[in-house]
Design brief:
Elements: E1 21-23, E2 29-31, E3 60-61, E4 68-73, H1 92-101, H2 108-119, E5 126-129, H3 137-150, E6 154-161, E7 164-171, E8 192-200, H4 204-215, E9 222-224, E10 233-241, H5 245-250, E11 258-266, E12 277-285, H6 291-304, E13 306-307, H7 322-330, H8 334-342, H9 351-362, H10 365-369, H11 378-388, H12 395-399, H13 404-430, E14 439-441, H14 449-454, E15 465-467, E16 481-485, H15 497-507, E17 527-530, E18 532-533, E19 536-545, H16 556-560, E20 574-583, H17 589-597, H18 603-606
Parallel strand pairs: 4-10
Antiparallel strand pairs: 1-2, 3-12, 4-12, 5-7, 6-7, 8-10, 8-11, 9-10, 12-20, 13-18, 14-15, 14-16, 16-17, 19-20
Helix pairs in contact: 6-17, 7-8, 7-13
């Protein structure tokens, strides 16, 4: 395989390559070098099979978070990219709207001054507004009201300066007043500001929470098509209800690990599932395989696809898997679910670990919560729920203190565990050929994992399926076959695989009727998922490099900063494999990489693969 030109990567924070630690999605560092500590592996969540029979080779996945780039692909098939972070041009129509609303009480210069002050571009603590007749109390009152209406985040007052009265405008302290009027919204402008959000080593919900917090808005004012990996550099589309592009743009000066741009207004918001997929660029460092072996592996994945397993990030990376919590929730064992979330993790080393340990020893939620004064993590919210409950055993009420999407993560993790396990058994027993009774979709798209994850309580996506018969089994390929995620409103295969579902659920004391839970949030209608999927626009190349900390991919932000693309070094000491591909929204790039490497992708295993592990 010929080497290709390489790209320069923005310098990221130094990551310790030698210590064997797992960087978890909740910022927990877990020491995997401790003896007698067991961490989740692929086989624990039903991931056991491969499609191809090529030889395995060595490579390190996500050794640096800059080794994993994701660009969302919208419904038109275009990748979402951050290409413009300049301040949006203030539309003339908006200026005219404001001038109309002020009824000539404020000049155009006054409005511009207040606009800049509200957006934070003016480096002053207050601004002064001059009036033709400041001694006219009725006039001053009208101007105060206009400013309150147009600028809810500002407040004005009359002051005496040099023996004369004047209006001084400053930022509100302690947030907007309860009955403050909302700023008028131009009638010729869409209600939603859409923008591209680029983030580094942060998950989507955390990034949105940060933006909402800085704007003093509710998280629900922001919507997006799907969540993106935390450990990586990702770009996705976001929409915000009645937030001006100017206000959003000003956040770039204070955001860390997040950059937003490409602002435009639309009449409709983004909705979950409104994406065609994701474009991935992945670096596998310290790669040791021969080019011929790589070609065989990559060609196999291009032609045959990979098993569409739910990846390890679906199940967490600590010693307590998320699907165990999900099982407890589905069984209505509220105390067990809460205690699994708060149970101390082996090898965990941080303030969350201290809080878990204190709660486990004392069952004093208030004392444990004191260890997390500034944390907004799931554990803190659960402890707050327990501490604020009417009685200390209100575990269901406490669990409801956790945001709905986070709670649903647990039950969907259990569904994913069942799906992975059934998938492995189906492929191991019957191979890569369709069999009579397998299910295929008829004229409808697959219910995406995004829809499943984010809104299990919504009416199930009506996907028509049919069972393969003896007369048409030859018309289908393994990539046509779907398996259901278990639910109360789903069709199961018309063969023995259906019994496997019943048996596996029964082991945990569940059946499909119990999945129609009395608590609506945990009522699971089910969905369908492709057994095998193929990447689109797949390409690969081998890179040579010398510096272990050298960035090998060019992110959107790097391109905006005009970073140069360095060439691969022909005599470089190390080799890396670069993979670029587009996958459906419900598929995991880590599972595609697993098929290529034939190596465990669990965080615990990958973290042990330092540079000394390659030969």
């Amino acid at each position: 395989m010929a080497t290709t030109k390489r790209v320069n990567e923005q310098t990221e924070e130094t990551e310790n390559q030698k210590t064997k630690k797992v960087k978890l999605d909740d910022d927990v560092s877990t020491d995997t070098s401790q003896p007698n500590v067991y961490f989740l592996q692929e086989k624990d969540v039903g991931i056991t099979e491969y499609i191809s029979d090529h030889n395995s080779f060595f490579g390190i996945l996500k050794q640096r978070y800059s080794d994993f780039l994701v660009n969302e692909v919208d419904l038109t098939g275009n990748a979402v990219q951050l290409t413009d972070i300049s301040r949006p041009t203030f539309p003339e129509t908006e200026k005219k709207q404001k001038l109309k609303d002020v009824d000539n009480l404020l000049s155009e210069e006054d409005i511009q001054k207040l606009d800049e002050f509200e957006m934070g571009s003016a480096s002053v603590s207050s601004v002064m507004i001059s009036l033709a007749d400041c001694e006219d109390k009725a006039l001053r009152t009208r101007v105060h009201r206009v400013i309150a209406n147009l600028y809810p985040s500002l407040e004005s007052e009359t002051k005496q300066e040099d023996g004369k009265k004047c209006l001084v405008v400053s930022k509100k302290g302690g947030g907007p007043k309860r009955h403050a009027s909302k700023s008028p919204w131009p009638t010729d402008r869409g209600h939603y500001c859409h923008f591209a959000m680029y983030k580094e080593n942060r998950d989507t919900t955390d990034a949105i929470n940060t933006i909402a917090h800085l704007l003093k808005m509710k998280n629900g004012s922001f919507t997006y098509a799907g969540t993106k990996d935390k450990r990586g550099k990702t770009t996705q589309a976001v929409s915000a209800f009645r937030v001006t592009a100017d206000r959003l743009h000003c956040l770039n000066s204070c955001l860390r690990g997040i950059t937003i741009g490409n602002f435009h207004y639309e009449k409709e918001p983004l909705k979950l599932g409104q994406l065609a997929g994701n474009r991935f660029s992945v670096i596998l460092r310290n790669f040791s395989g021969e080019d011929s072996v790589v070609d065989v592996a990559m060609t196999s994945m291009r032609d045959n696809g990979f098993i569409n397993y739910y990846g390890m990030q679906r199940f967490g990376t600590t010693t307590i898997p998320t699907h165990h919590v999900g099982r407890a929730l589905l069984l209505s064992r509220w105390q067990e679910a809460a205690e699994l979330i708060l149970q101390p993790r082996q090898g965990e080393r941080n303030e969350v670990a201290e809080a878990r340990s204190l709660f486990w020893e004392t069952r004093d939620a208030r004392a444990a919560l004191s260890k997390l004064p500034k944390r907004r993590c799931i554990e803190a919210m659960l402890l707050h729920g327990l501490a604020a409950g009417r009685h200390r055993n209100d575990y269901l009420g406490a669990i409801n203190s956790i945001p709905r999407n986070s709670r649903l993560m647990y039950v969907h993790s259990y569904q994913s565990y069942i799906w992975n396990t059934i998938t492995s058994r189906r492929l191991k027993q019957f191979g890569l050929k369709p069999i009579v009774g397998d299910l295929v979709m008829v004229g409808e798209k697959e219910a995406s994992a995004v829809e499943l994850e984010e809104d299990a309580n919504a009416p199930p996506t009506k996907v028509r399926v049919k069972a393969v018969s003896e007369t048409d089994v030859g018309n289908y390929d393994i990539t046509d076959i779907v398996l259901p995620l278990p639910g109360h409103d789903i069709e199961f295969p018309h063969n023995e695989v259906s019994e496997w579902y019943k048996d596996l659920l029964a082991v945990d004391g569940l059946d499909t009727e119990k999945l129609k839970h009395k608590v609506k949030d945990y009522s699971l209608p089910g969905a369908y998922r492709k057994l095998v999927t193929k990447p689109v626009d797949l390409s690969w190349s081998v890179i040579s490099y010398d510096d272990k900390t050298e960035s090998l991919l060019l992110s959107d932000l790097d391109r905006l900063n005009h970073q140069e693309e360095p060439k691969s070094k022909p005599d470089g000491q190390y080799k890396a494999l670069k993979i670029e591909m587009t996958l459906p929204s419900s598929s995991y790039a880590t599972m595609a990489v697993r098929e290529v490497l034939k190596m465990d992708t669990s965080a615990a295993h990958q973290s042990t693969l330092n540079d000394d592990g390659a030969t």
